[in-house]
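Appendix B. Chain record.
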Amino acid sequence: VQLQASGGGLVQAGGSLRISCAASGVMFSIENMGWYRRGQGNQREFIATINTAGVTNYADSVKGRFTISRENAKNTVYLQMNSLKPEDTAVYYCYADVFTGSKIVVRWGQGTQVTVSS
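Structure tokens predicted for this chain:
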């Protein structure tokens, strides 16, 4: 299974951006999908997750500004980011909990850069 993230870019503070992540090569199913980010401090920060039923969970830092969604038929997860702040600048990584038929393994995308200018 491979995850391909896309949609990053440069946006002004207060603006919006949507990033997406599509999984390919899925033989069985994908359970949870979500996003993390690494900012200037290079620490990985949880952003949001969504399960197959659409139940979501967010980090406090993005709650009310970011919305995670998914299309199960396309094995794709999205992150709609509104009211962006300079501190949201980071490389955003998607992940998927992939059921292989016997166990669940975590797969990561390559990351997409989001830069928010002040």
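Further analysis of this model is presented in Appendix C.
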